[in-house]
Structures are given as structure tokens and as C-alpha cells.
Design a protein that fits this description.
The complex is a heterotrimer. Chain A is mainly alpha-helical. Helix content of chain A is about 45%, strand content about 5%. Chain B is globular, with a radius of gyration of 27 Å. Classes of the chains: A mainly alpha, B alpha+beta, C alpha+beta.
């Protein structure tokens, strides 16, 4: 952390010294006058409805709501390599929310990442994506947010070291990384593809999790969708480097995003759970567009990927595992896993057959460690996967042995290394979600709380 | 079904009694009617009509020990305790000095099913009168021996005492066959004013074992040399087992036998987990030809009202042409198939020895299930003994009867060896007979006086009971090589009814027309679940009453009272409203709503009114019960704590049904096969408070209360959601998504 | 053969290492409290305590328990000498069919050992993995609160008996 703030510090100083005028022009934005909070009835009902769908596409509630607290009232701690940022209150509360923001102020925030008073917003709020959103859609979002229940919830102080806690620093970041302006369609592509691109690059901001970031925390444009990290989970590559045993296609993506699961891939858990829950409430055509665009990003599977996919599916159909057990880890598998994962029922009726699991075939074992330790909690009253967590019954060594066994048995990938440390770290970060979360305020707890819709 | 009275019970008790009394059995929930074809017994109260000899109910030994017999089963409702209270009260003995023996085809009277909330009414009443008469006989005998008038004698500690101090204990007074006399209708039970034990919240006799790991359930039964069996059920209804290589399975560690009889397939092993692994291997090895064509789960309304043939019965008509309405509304309410969801999947132990089959089972009806199993095995019923041994709450006809049949069939293949069959969770969910889907259509109008002028109610439903039915109702018998066919479904007769239970409103309207569209075809396996048709019918009626109250511009409670003549009904309505703080013009806080509902179960059992407060998250549509206040009148209360427990439980369970539950299926198979795919209420949805207020009616007949809360709880929640959101939902379950869509619309 | 430590006693168990603890407890050791509800880790009826933590015995192979302390409901007390949680459940009559209760009690016991003064919210969150179909939830909550009180009193009493660990 110190090293990074050191780097940033130097960069910012260089910028300010080297381009004072340009920097000033970027760094300073005027305040937009406060307005009286508009009456909810003044907004057209269909515009509000459209805004609700867009907010679901943007997954706004996920960052702007703390579980158990009021909707959109902010306060969710988002851990970054630079410190913890707390999401803001975007209810129309006059004092602590955006109640006094004019439509123009809101549009500017989405387009340029500046708040009503002219202060730069930290790019944890992904305006590098939201800049793509059209004015019309921004207006709908505004209408939606301004008709929510106002909640008095003062913002929490971000935990950033100097000079990062000086918002002017962000101007430099924007100079380097923000390409402001709404999405421009590609005329050589279909309307559905463009719609998908508009949504993915814009509101859905998939790259914010799924693209690796550079040292300054910006997405690497030359490695789009090549995988990222969020809240101690691995956001898998969702391009040609996808580690999924069965290659993704548009139909599978559509089903996964819409229903939250696909029989060849598994169920959306971790931070994706809320995303798919939101996507279940938007027009199917939008999800279809996203799936079309992303299928293109994945690209057609190579011959090798196709073959691997067929082999995995064949493994699932073939005779089940022998009932004799070959090792202690194998015993764990038979007693703890096979009941659900060899039930012959696809998700959500059973656990996914592990030969199809990306968590096991991917290069990063963290997701698997997280899931094995913490399990998957039920969603109240809804059909959803339930998996017991094994943190209480298995030591780190035992979990590591199990992971090694699963990797060897269910994937064709090289063994993972350093599992002992990875499992210990996963236990630490998942712990808060495993015990009673009532008072847990630390970042890991909150971030995995987001996994539960 | 009236079984023979068994006279040899007393002689057999010495030996076989030990098996029975080693388990303490407690009660659960009552459901559908015990199913007599004969008209109700004329004069004798409760089940005495069918089993009039006192020693069917009470036995006093020479050493003074007293045993109470009931043909009913403890299902977790606390009946064992309640009956012990009743007998202790009437016999004037200390509570702890009695023991209760429950349903056993060799020992107890045939009381049909423990269902329909009949247990206290039928069995409790029989015990009450039998015990009262027994006491009178003991006193009369003492009077004879002491040569004193009976009136001067008193009873203390199971002895009759004269004023001069001479004392004859019950044990001394009894001779052989002392109680082998018929009950007399003129017997007078005790004056409630003198009650010492009845009406008291006596702690349940079964709870200590359950909280300390004592043996309490059929699942805890361990017999010497017992083996473990697991059934491999077909993947769908009517599937045919075309091929299975059992040889490999027979060689798996611990496997004793693979049993195959047509499409019935099971494996038996020495140890339990060996049986489970063998079951998994056997299931993988089995090849089935599936032919099931299930209906579309999203089109139940069309299925029930259009596709399936109906037998139409007008079950209530009242006409007053002088009264007509001005404003009319109509509504359609739907209920999906719903599952019992017993926490412990069904289990049974059977042993076939010396030509006799003994089955330990948690069936609700030992006699009918015995008859069915005997028929399945082509054995005389007298050679088959079923002993009720408590399972987890069944809430009606779950897999218990079938598990008993499975165990018997497998045990026959392994003579002398006790065979334990434990259903898997997925099997219980997929194969239990569900509560039938239902549709109701209501239409009513309000007259100038703001009251309902005419009322039309139509209900579409399958039967709500596939028992008794003989072997054809048992899965094992249906799947055997020479299968038994499912008998044709028949509606349960009124006044209790099945799909039409509580279809006739308790309110007084000038014009009433009620239709029951009975649907004999059952595309999905169904039978009785707690409340039967009453759950949905009361949900419909009480939701619609609110809609009409709204139309009339009247407060919902006031509106009900305007149409309710039954004074005890009025009392519970007023009590619940008063305790809740209900008042006209009230306004629930932001995001909350208040709802009210009332019903008298079957229009002849217990009365229950419930006022609820529900919270609805407008963003997500999530509804949560926050507060429920109930008032209940169950006649003479036996155990107030037990009654409160039942009502609280009914409210929680009904809330779960109402907000979450629906059986799911695709075109071939049931797909809701565990708690992932059939979610029920968890602690994160438990309300803040449930208050139950009992209106005791000393001396009045016992009224069945196990099911009285289900319907009112559902409607109360639905009405509160409507109050909170301004939107009326009529399709169960009232899921988060449906509420959200209604809010957004 | 392996050694399993249950309720303070060592047992020699002859079971395959992949056997879930639930079946060893019930069939080999003849203990009744932990129950088969689903075998899938979805309902909590099988909950026991291992080294102070609540564990679902139906998905815990017995080989994982080498050297660990397993506590079942039987280990907490008897009818004659009940532990605070058992007393509390009896006093509150917190059961209908009772099938889920042993699992509830063990999960609650693990909570109380960790946090002797839980709030209502914390108890609800802790019990979320455990299902009750009869609807005894309100009484279960009251019983856990009562158990906390009883444990509190027990610690303060001159006899100073700590609740069974």
C-alpha cells in the first residue's frame, strides 16, 4: 500500500508541476447550484420504470446498499489497493443524499465523475464505464433515483492515506484514463450487438471486475476481460482465455445471466449473485444483447477448447465414480460432496458435476477455497443453491488436500501451488460471512454480504 | 374403515407391551377425516361409539398401574400428554401415575387416522368418558365392599377412601374383566370447576427425551441384527425399469441383498452408509423407460378449470330474491401443489418372522395402513401388526405409509431380519403425495345497506385424501411386478369435505351459491395435507371479504361482524382485533400493512381469528410477517400451552406456504426435490412476535385445533400485503417477485 | 479402525473413513440426538459441535475428526441433570414434533459458548442454517435467550458451575 501511494504521489506531483494549466482545467469543475428536492410526482411513471430497469442493469443497489440497511443509502465499504472507499447515499435525501442535485448535475456525475459541488468522485464509482451511458438513459436513472425513499444517512469517511485523500488527485487519473462521452455504435455490427456493447461497456460495467487493472487502478485496455479480482474472489477471464471447461456461447450466457445458473457451468455466486438477481428483472432482450456481445468477446472456441468441452460433458455422462475410495481426500469427496455433486441433477436441482466447474479448472483456486469454506447460503424463499460450508469441520491442510484432489480428478490443468496459504487467507476473508454478521463492519464481511441478494 | 375390536389385547400386553412402551410417542398434526363409511355412532361420545368397551381405553392392573389406550398417534401435537391429563383428571389420579399407549393394531382401538383435528374430539372424548365411568365403577365397587353409600366416599391417590378411614386402592378393587363393560351415555364427566389437571399447561411428557437424546422416533429404533435398506425409486411417475445389473451391486461392501419386484428396486446392507453408497450405484446402474407427461406447472388454472374433467356438485344454496346487490366484484384465486416437507424423511422398520409381519411406522393410520400392506403381501390382516412409532411432523399424508410398505416388502425377502428403510430427502420431496392444486372463483355484490347481498363461490380440486385405498395407494404396490392399481378418487363427504372443506361460508348472506367441481383425475400424486381444502378456501373467502369490505367502504373487522351471527365466532374476532389494537381508520406505518382474517375450521371445529402486521420492501417486493395476534376458541381447553404451540406453529407454517411454497415439475419429473428447490421459511423471516389468546369454554366439547390456524393465517398475511401495497394478490404463493411485479405494475 | 472422541470418551470405530459422522454417531455409538434430515447440509438436523464449532455431521466424513472433540446433545446433560440449554428448552416447551430441536440446540450451544450475551438478531442469524417445519421458531428463540440467562446465573452462582463445554 505504501509503495503504491508513493507511486501515485510522484505521478500526481509530476502532473501538477508539468501541466499546471491543463491539470487545472481538468482538476477544477464548477459547482452546480443546489435545487429543492423535486417532487416524486413530477416524474413520468414510464420514465421511472425505465430508470428502474437501467438501475438493475447497472447493479446500483449492490454497491450503494449495505445488507440490512436502507436501499441506496450507501455506506458500503469497498476495499481497493489504495484504501477503503465508502459508497455514497444516492437516495433523494436533501442533506446526505442527492436530493439537491439537478438533472444536469447527475448527468455530469455519470459522464465525468464529478459531484454536484464539483468535487471529483473516486473511480471506484465506475464512471469510466458510465460515461458511455446516453443522456436519455441518464435522465431515466435520475427519475428513478429521485423517486426512491429519501434516507438520512451521512456519508462515511473514506480510509485513504495522503495524498490519495485529496480528491484533486483524481484529476490526474482522469487525464490518463477517462475517455468521456457516450457510446458510439459500430455501424458494421448488428443492432443487438451494439445494444450489448452499449450495456456491457456502459451500465453493466462488466470490465470493472473482469478486466485486470494497472498500478494506478485503471483497467488495462490491452487486456480487456482478461480477468480481475473483486472482494477476495476471482472474476474469471470472460474472453478467449476463459478457463471454463465447456466453452460459453450466447445461449448459455443468456440463461446464466437471466436465471442465475446454467447446467454446463454452475451457479452464479459470490459477487455475481446480486448481478444475476438484478438481471432477472430487466427486459429479456437486454440480457440477450449482453449475451450476444459477450459471446463475441469470448470468441468462437478454438478446436482445443471445443474438444475439452466435449470431453468434460462426456465425463459427466459416463459411469459414476467408483464407490471405493482411494485417499483421505477422496473420502472427503464421497462423504461431503458426492451427495449433491454426483446426484445426476443439474443446477439448481443439484450441485454441478465438478468436471464442469470453472472454479476447479481456473488458474486461481481462491473461488473454490471460498466456496468450500463458506458454502452458499440460501436465498430467502427462493429456489437457489444451498451448500454447507466446511470451515468448521476442515482444517486448512484438509481443505488444501481436498482442493488438490478435486483439481487432479476433475480438471486437466496443472496442480495449484501454495494452497496452504491461499486457504488460510480465504478462511480469514470469509470468516466474517460465516459467523453472525450482525455487527460485522469490516470490508470483507460487507463485500461478501453483497453475495447474498 | 371399522376394524375388529381385538379381545386378545390384554393377554398379549405382558409380552409385547414392552416393545411399545419403550418409546414415548408424541403428537403432530391432524388432517383429513378419519374415514368411516357408516353413519356416526348414535349416543356414545367420541370414539366410544365404535369401541364401546371401557377396557379398550383404560386398563388398571392389580398392582395399581394404570394404562390409557388411544388409537390415535402422537404426531408432535402433544396428544399423549393431553390424553394423560384427561384420564388423570377423570380417574382422579396423579398425572405422573399413568402411562399412555398409542396406536397399535394389536393393542388399541381402531380410531382410523390421526387426522382432521379429530383426536381430542374423538379419542380425548372417549378417554374422558371411559375414565369417568371407570371411576364411577371403582367407587361403586368400593361402596359394595365397604357396605357404604357411594356418595360418602372420596378419592385420593388412586384409592377410594371412606370417612372412617378405610381405604381400597384401585388395584385392590379391580378384578379380571372389571372394565370389560360397555360405556354408558349417561356417564357424567367431572365438573370443570373441579379440574386440577385439565386446562393446566402440564409440560409435555415427550420433550425431556427429545432434548437429551433419548429414543423418541422410529428413526431411533434399533433392533438386534437390523439391516439398512434404501429404495431406488423411479425417476418419474410410471417409469419402467428396463435393465439393471444387480450382480455388481450385490458385491459392494456390506450389501446383503438387492430386492427387485418389477419396478420396485431396493438394496439392503449391513451398515447405513454402505446402503447409501450401494443405492447410488444401483440408481446409476438402473435404466428406465420414462413415459410420464406432466402438465405445465405455470398453467394450473387452465388445467383445473378447463382440461381436467369435473364432477359438479352444488353444495349449498340459499336464495332470497328480495335482496339484490348494486356493486359486484369477482375474483379468481389459485393455489399450486404444495408439499408436506416433513423434516425427517419417512422411515419404517419391519420384521417378518413366523409368518407374521410387524411394522414400526409413523403412519397416521395403523389400521388402514395394515389393511393395505396385508393386501399388498396377500397376507391376512391378523398376521400383520402395525405399531405407531413417532416420526417427525407429517402434517398429513406424507411418505409414512409408503415407507411402511417398502419395509414390509423388503422384510419379506429377508425373513427374521429386521429391515430398516429410510427414505432420502430427495425421495420424500419427489414421492410424497402433495396437497392438491386448487382454484376458486368468487363473485359477490354489495347491497344498498353496505352488506353482501349475494355470494357465489366455486372451487375446483382433486380429492384431498387417497386413503384408505388399499394396496393400490401404496407406491411399492403400484411398482411391483403384479401391480395394484390406484383406486378411483372419491370426494370426502361433507360436512367435513375435502376440496370443499370450508367452501361454505360461515357468514350469513341472503343469497349463497356454492359449487364444488370435483376433479377425479390426478396428474400429480396428491393426498391430504393439514387443513385440506380449508387452507385455500379460507384464503379465498377471507381475501375476498376484504375486497368486499373495501368496496363497501367499511373496516374489514366491522364488515365481518356485520355478517357473522355465530356468537363464539364474534368473540374470537373481537378478541383478536382488540388485542391487536385494531381500529377503524387505522394507518399502518410506512412499508407496512395490517390484515385480518377469521374462520371456524370445517364450520364445526375450532374458531380462529388472526390480525397480522406485514412489512413489504417496495424495492425488492420482499414481504415479512412482523406481528401476528390470534384468538382461538377450542371448547374446553385440555392443555393451553399445547394449544398455543399449535396455533403459533400453524401461523408460521402457513406463512411459509403462503409466501414461498410451490411444488415444481417439468414435463416429466418433479423438480422440487430438496430445500434448495423447495425453500421454506427460515429464521431470517421469523416475525418479532406472535400472541395467542385462548378463549376457554369450560365444559364445552373439545374442538379440534390442529388445523384451525392455516387458512386465517394465509388470508391475514395476504390482506396485510394488500394493505401495505394497495395491490391485491390472489395467486399463491405470494412470492417476492409477484409482489414486486404487482407494485411495479 | 479409528479413535473418535465423543462427549469426552474415546471410542474405537470400525467404519470406512468416508462415512459421515452422522451415521457413526447414530449406528455405531447408538446416539439419537443428531438426526438425518436431508444428508445434503441444507437443514441442520444433524448439527453437532466439533472443537467448539457447530458442524453438519451429515456431510462430515469421520476421517476428519481424528484428534478432535465431538460433542452431541447427549454430552450436554441428562433429564436428571440438564445443561442450561436443555433446561431452557424444557421450560419453554420449545418443541412440537421435536425432530429439528437437537440440531437447533447444538447450534445455539455453539453460539452461547462463543458469545454468552447474543442479541435477538444474532441468534436469528446464527440459526438460519437450521430448518423447523412445525413452526416452533418463536419458542426456540425464547429458549435460547433463556439459556443465555441460565448460563449467566450459573456462572454467578457460588457453586460456579460452568455450562458443559
Amino acid at each position: 500500500m505504501k509503495k503504491k501511494s508513493g507511486i501515485i504521489g510522484s505521478v500526481v506531483v509530476a502532473l501538477l508541476l508539468g501541466g499546471a494549466g491543463m491539470a487545472f482545467a481538468i482538476a477544477w469543475r464548477p459547482a452546480i447550484a443546489a435545487i429543492d428536492p423535486p417532487k416524486p410526482q413530477s416524474f413520468d411513471a414510464s420514465l421511472v420504470r425505465r430508470g428502474r430497469e437501467l438501475a438493475a442493469l447497472g447493479n446500483c443497489n449492490d454497491c450503494h446498499t449495505v445488507r440490512g440497511a436502507k436501499n441506496f443509502a450507501g455506506g458500503l465499504p469497498v476495499p481497493t489497493p489504495f484504501g477503503t472507499i465508502y459508497s455514497s447515499n444516492i437516495t433523494p435525501d436533501a442533506e446526505t443524499g442527492i436530493g439537491r442535485w439537478s438533472e444536469a448535475a447527475f448527468l455530469r456525475a455519470m459522464r465525468l465523475g464529478v459531484d454536484r459541488q464539483g468535487r471529483h468522485l473516486y473511480p471506484t464509482f465506475p464512471y469510466d464505464h458510465f460515461t458511455n451511458v446516453s443522456d436519455d438513459d441518464d435522465r431515466a436513472l435520475y427519475a428513478f433515483l429521485m423517486t426512491r425513499e429519501p434516507v438520512h444517512a451521512p456519508p462515511r469517511d473514506n480510509q485513504l492515506a495522503f495524498p490519495l485523500n485529496q480528491r484533486v488527485v483524481v484529476a490526474g487519473w482522469k487525464f490518463l484514463f477517462l475517455r468521456p462521452g457516450a457510446y458510439k455504435p459500430d455501424p458494421t455490427r448488428s443492432a443487438e450487438w451494439n445494444r450489448g456493447a452499449y450495456l456491457v461497456e456502459g451500465l453493466a460495467h462488466c470490465g470493472a471486475c473482469h478486466t485486470p487493472r494497472n498500478a494506478l487502478g485503471a483497467e488495462k485496455l490491452n487486456a480487456m476481460f482478461a480477468g480481475g479480482d473483486v472482494d477476495h474472489w476471482r472474476a474469471y477471464p470472460i474472453n478467449a482465455q476463459s478457463p471454463a471447461p465447456v466453452p460459453w456461447n450466447a445461449d448459455a450466457l443468456y440463461a446464466y445471466l437471466r436465471d442465475g445458473f446454467h447446467s454446463d457451468h454452475g451457479t452464479a455466486r459470490g459477487p455475481m449473485a446480486e448481478v444475476v438477481r438484478n438481471l432477472s428483472a430487466v427486459p429479456g432482450s437486454d440480457v440477450r444483447a449482453i449475451a450476444t456481445y459477450m459471446a463475441d468477446v469470448f470468441g468462437a472456441p478454438s478446436a482445443e477448447q471445443k474438444q475439452r468441452g466435449e470431453a468434460a460433458l462426456a465425463q459427466v455422462k459416463s459411469a459414476p465414480a467408483a464407490t471405493t475410495v482411494d485417499s483421505p481426500a477422496g473420502s472427503i469427496y464421497v462423504a461431503a460432496c458426492a451427495g449433491c455433486h454426483e446426484s445426476g441433477r443439474p443446477p439448481p436441482y443439484g450441485g454441478i458435476n465438478l468436471a464442469l466447474s470453472t472454479a476447479i479448472s481456473g488458474s486461481d483456486p481462491r473461488n473454490l477455497a471460498n466456496i468450500v469454506l463458506a458454502g452458499v447460503r440460501p436465498v430467502e424463499g427462493e429456489r437457489s443453491p444451498i451448500m454447507p460450508g466446511f470451515a468448521a469441520s476442515m482444517s486448512d491442510t484438509q481443505v488444501a488436500a481436498l482442493l488438490t484432489y478435486l483439481r487432479a480428478r476433475f480438471s486437466k490443468q496443472p496442480a495449484w501451488t501454495d494452497l496452504g496459504n491461499i486457504v488460510a487467507e480465504a478462511r480469514r476473508t470469509q470468516t466474517a460471512s460465516m459467523e453472525t454478521p450482525a455487527d460485522a463492519r469490516n470490508a470483507s464481511a460487507a463485500s461478501t454480504e453483497r453475495a447474498k441478494p | 374403515m371399522i376394524g375388529p375390536f381385538i379381545l386378545d389385547r390384554r393377554r398379549l400386553l405382558a409380552g409385547s407391551g414392552a416393545l411399545v412402551v419403550s418409546f414415548s410417542l408424541s403428537g403432530a398434526f391432524a388432517e383429513e377425516q378419519s374415514a368411516p363409511a357408516a353413519p356416526p355412532a348414535p349416543k356414545l361420545p367420541g370414539s366410544l361409539g365404535k369401541s364401546p368397551y371401557l377396557d379398550s381405553w383404560i386398563r388398571i392392573d392389580a398392582d395399581g398401574s394404570i394404562t390409557v389406550f388411544t388409537g390415535k398417534a402422537e404426531l408432535g401435537q402433544g396428544f399423549k400428554t393431553a390424553f394423560q391429563q384427561i384420564a388423570a383428571e377423570e380417574l382422579d389420579v396423579p398425572f405422573a401415575s399413568l402411562k399412555v399407549v398409542t396406536a397399535d393394531t394389536k393393542l388399541t382401538a381402531n380410531e382410523g387416522y390421526t387426522a382432521g383435528s379429530h383426536s381430542t374430539q374423538d379419542s380425548g372424548t372417549a378417554i374422558q368418558y371411559a375414565a369417568a365411568q371407570a371411576r364411577a365403577l371403582l367407587v361403586a365397587e368400593a361402596a359394595k365392599r365397604l357396605d357404604l353409600p357411594a356418595e360418602g366416599l372420596r378419592i385420593e391417590n388412586a384409592a377410594v377412601i371412606a370417612s372412617d378411614g378405610r381405604r381400597l386402592s384401585y388395584g385392590e378393587l379391580v378384578a379380571a374383566d372389571f372394565l370389560h363393560v360397555q360405556a354408558e351415555a349417561r356417564t357424567k364427566p367431572k365438573d370443570p370447576a373441579a379440574f386440577k389437571v385439565m386446562g393446566q399447561p402440564i409440560p409435555r411428557v415427550d420433550i425431556p427425551a427429545k432434548v437429551t437424546g433419548g429414543a423418541a422416533y422410529v428413526q431411533d429404533l434399533r433392533l438386534p441384527d437390523m439391516v439398512h435398506a434404501r429404495v431406488v425409486r423411479p425417476p418419474s411417475y410410471g417409469a419402467e425399469l428396463t435393465n439393471v445389473d444387480t450382480a455388481t451391486i450385490e458385491n459392494l461392501p456390506g450389501v446383503v441383498k438387492v430386492v427387485r419386484d418389477g419396478n420396485f428396486l431396493a438394496v439392503v446392507a449391513k451398515k447405513e452408509f454402505q446402503a447409501i453408497k450401494a443405492m447410488r450405484a444401483l440408481a446409476a446402474a438402473a435404466k428406465w423407460k420414462e413415459t410420464a407427461r406432466l402438465p405445465n406447472q405455470d398453467e394450473l388454472l387452465a388445467l383445473l378449470t378447463t382440461t381436467l374433467k369435473s364432477q359438479d356438485h352444488a353444495i349449498f344454496e340459499r336464495s332470497d330474491p328480495s335482496v339484490s346487490g348494486q356493486k359486484a366484484i369477482e375474483a379468481t384465486f389459485t393455489r399450486p401443489y404444495q408439499s408436506h416437507g416433513s423434516m425427517g424423511p419417512s422411515c419404517a422398520v419391519a420384521q417378518f418372522a413366523n409368518g407374521a409381519m410387524t411394522v414400526w411406522t409413523h403412519t397416521q393410520g395403523v389400521y388402514p395402513d395394515r389393511a393395505a400392506i396385508a393386501e399388498m403381501l396377500h397376507m391376512p390382516p391378523a398376521s400383520v401388526r402395525l405399531i405407531h412409532t413417532e416420526g417427525s411432523g407429517c402434517y398429513g399424508h406424507n411418505g409414512a405409509d409408503d415407507a411402511a410398505a417398502d419395509a414390509a416388502l423388503i422384510a419379506r425377502a429377508l425373513p427374521d431380519t429386521p429391515v430398516r428403510v429410510q427414505w432420502m430427502r430427495e425421495q420424500e420431496h419427489a414421492w410424497e403425495p402433495y396437497a392438491p392444486a386448487m382454484v376458486t372463483k368468487l363473485k359477490a355484490s354489495i347491497g344498498a345497506d353496505g352488506k353482501i347481498a349475494d355470494w357465489n363461490f366455486a372451487v375446483w380440486s382433486n380429492t384431498h385424501s387417497m386413503r384408505p385405498g388399499g394396496a393400490g395407494c401404496l407406491l411399492a404396490a403400484q411398482h411391483m411386478e403384479k401391480p395394484f392399481t390406484v383406486p378411483p378418487a372419491k370426494p370426502l363427504p361433507l360436512p367435513e369435505g375435502g376440496g370443499d372443506r370450508n367452501a361454505i361460508p360461515i357468514y350469513t348472506f341472503p343469497n349463497i351459491h356454492v359449487m364444488h367441481h370435483f376433479l377425479p383425475d390426478m396428474p400429480i400424486r396428491i393426498s391430504a395435507m393439514r387443513g385440506l381444502g380449508a387452507y385455500h378456501n379460507i384464503f379465498s373467502i377471507e381475501s375476498f371479504m376484504d375486497e368486499l369490505a373495501n368496496l363497501a367502504g367499511t373496516d374489514p373487522v366491522e364488515f365481518r361482524l356485520k355478517h357473522l351471527d355465530d356468537p363464539r365466532g364474534r368473540d374470537v374476532v373481537e378478541k383478536a382485533a382488540e388485542q391487536f389494537g385494531w381500529h377503524t381508520g387505522q394507518q399502518a406505518p410506512q412499508d407496512r400493512g395490517y390484515g385480518f382474517a377469521f374462520a371456524r375450521y370445517k364450520n364445526l371445529a375450532a374458531y380462529c381469528a388472526i390480525a397480522s402486521e406485514v412489512e413489504v420492501n417496495r424495492e425488492t417486493g420482499r414481504a415479512r410477517l412482523v406481528l401476528a395476534v390470534a384468538a382461538v376458541d377450542s371448547g374446553q381447553v385440555v392443555n393451553p400451552d399445547g394449544l398455543t404451540n399449535q396455533i403459533e406453529g400453524a401461523i408460521m407454517q402457513s406463512s411459509s406456504w403462503t409466501l414461498y411454497e410451490r411444488v415444481s415439475f417439468d414435463e416429466r419429473r418433479i423438480t422440487s426435490i430438496d430445500w434448495q428447490t423447495y425453500p421454506i421459511l427460515r429464521f431470517d423471516a421469523v416475525p418479532e412476535k406472535i400472541d395467542v389468546h385462548i378463549i376457554n369454554r369450560p365444559g364445552k366439547p373439545f374442538l379440534g385445533s390442529g388445523e384451525t390456524g392455516q387458512g386465517p393465517a394465509a388470508a391475514s398475511v395476504a390482506n396485510a400485503i394488500a394493505n401495505a401495497t394497495g395491490k391485491r394478490l390472489r395467486d399463491l404463493p405470494l412470492t417476492r417477485k409477484r409482489i414486486k411485479d404487482a407494485i411495479d405494475a | 479402525m479409528m479413535t473418535l472422541k465423543v462427549n469426552g470418551q474415546d471410542h474405537q470405530i470400525d467404519a470406512e473413513p468416508d462415512t459421515p459422522l452422522l451415521y457413526v454417531l447414530r449406528d455405531d455409538l447408538k446416539l439419537n440426538a443428531a438426526k438425518y434430515g436431508c444428508g445434503l447440509g441444507q437443514c441442520g438436523s444433524c448439527t453437532v459441535i466439533v472443537d467448539g464449532k457447530a458442524v453438519l455431521s451429515c456431510v462430515t466424513p469421520v476421517l476428519l475428526l481424528e484428534g478432535k472433540q465431538v460433542t452431541t446433545l447427549e454430552g450436554l446433560g441428562t433429564v436428571a441433570a440438564p445443561s442450561p440449554i436443555q433446561r431452557a428448552f424444557m421450560e419453554e416447551q420449545a418443541a412440537q414434533c421435536g425432530y429439528c430441536i437437537a440440531g437447533m440446540m447444538m447450534r445455539a450451544q455453539a453460539l452461547l459458548q462463543r458469545n454468552s450475551k447474543p442479541t435477538d438478531e444474532q441468534i436469528r442469524a446464527e440459526l438460519e442454517p437450521n430448518l423447523c417445519r412445525c413452526g416452533t421458531h418463536m419458542r426456540i428463540l425464547r429458549a435460547v435467550h433463556r439459556a443465555a440467562q441460565l448460563m449467566d446465573t450459573a456462572e454467578l452462582s457460588p457453586a460456579g458451575q460452568r455450562s458443559a463445554q
